[in-house]
Design a protein that fits this description.
Blueprint: E1 4-6, H1 13-16, H2 27-48, E2 52-58, H3 64-72, E3 80-84, H4 99-102, E4 111-115, H5 124-127, H6 133-152, E5 156-163, H7 166-178, H8 188-194, H9 197-211, E6 218-222, H10 226-242, H11 255-265, H12 271-282
Parallel strand pairs: 2-4, 2-5, 3-4, 5-6
Antiparallel strand pairs: 1-6
Helix pairs in contact: 2-10, 3-10
């Protein structure tokens, strides 16, 4: 299956698929190129003051963390924040469930990544009984209104859903058990949620159908192939950011620095790199 962009037309989650039609050739090279482009876009975002929110949703082991690590690897850490979302603190539970997310919205020029998000109200809180039916039922409208406020205010909102199969989740759980450095990733909650697999699939389908809009679409990525999912997620983010900023005019090396390098070390130093940088600006 291919990546699907949802803007409100009804879909069946089973029809969207979890396995891509073909593998990505040279995924590491593609990721390297995308990371450089994302760095350029981040610099352009900082200079323009635009705000970006990236939402990563999907079941346990779907690959959200792997995508986020590759997304942020070469970005300026001063301009990107990653918020892993778990259960609300006791003091947050006495407030509206969106309150804690208002506190985490990006500053001008900043990228904010949510590893899980405000959609917990219609996912884990719905499926595992932490919210009453009337609470999660009205949340679809509340979430649409919240996101419309954000996009109307100029926020670039990117929503990615990693669609994983139950069989592949099992394989990834087993892989984590076999690999000592990954065992910390498994929690009792992860294993408990697998018992609710069918309920979660219904909840994901409702989420996609009831909260996908023209201004805040969902992008559904087949996630059984990790490399495919990583490349496609970074590609979507890169393409959408290039629609709002002119990253081609960004020089990663300040012209004042170039002049100082030449003054200090001579014109031959970093000649190839500097020429490539200047050429990249003039494309």
């Amino acid at each position: 299956m291919k990546v699907v962009k949802l803007t409100g037309d009804p879909v069946k989650l089973n029809d969207l698929g979890t396995v891509p039609k073909r593998k990505v050739e040279k995924p590491r090279d593609k990721i390297d190129n995308l990371q450089l482009q994302l760095l350029r876009s981040q610099q352009a975002l900082f200079r323009s003051g635009k705000r970006v929110i990236i939402i990563m949703e999907g079941t346990d082991t779907a690959g959200k963390g792997g995508v986020i690590r590759r997304l942020t690897r070469h970005l300026d850490p001063r301009g990107v924040r990653v918020w892993p979302i778990g259960a609300p603190a006791d003091w947050e539970q006495s407030r509206h469930y969106l309150y804690r997310f208002w506190q985490k919205l990006p500053e001008p020029g900043e990228i904010t990544v949510f590893d899980r998000s405000w959609y917990g109200r219609v996912l884990v809180e719905r499926v595992e009984g932490f919210a009453k039916k009337e609470e999660w039922s009205r949340a679809y409208r509340e979430l649409q209104e919240f996101e419309r406020q954000l996009t109307d205010d100029g926020v670039v909102l990117i929503k990615l859903f990693l669609n994983l199969s139950k069989d592949e989740q099992y394989e990834r759980f087993m892989g984590r058990l076999r690999e000592p450095t990954k065992r910390w990733k498994i929690t009792p909650a992860d294993l408990d949620s697998r018992r609710f697999w069918a309920d979660y699939q219904c909840a994901y389908e409702d989420m996609l159908n009831k909260t996908a809009t023209e201004s805040a679409p969902w992008y559904v990525i087949p996630a059984d192939d990790k490399q495919f999912a990583r490349v496609k997620c970074l590609s979507i983010i890169s393409d959408l950011l290039q629609q709002v900023v002119d990253s081609k005019r960004v020089m990663l090396l300040d012209p004042k620095v170039i002049a100082k390098v030449i003054e200090e070390f001579g014109e031959g130093v970093l000649r190839v790199q500097l020429v490539e940088e200047l050429d990249g600006k003039s494309d």
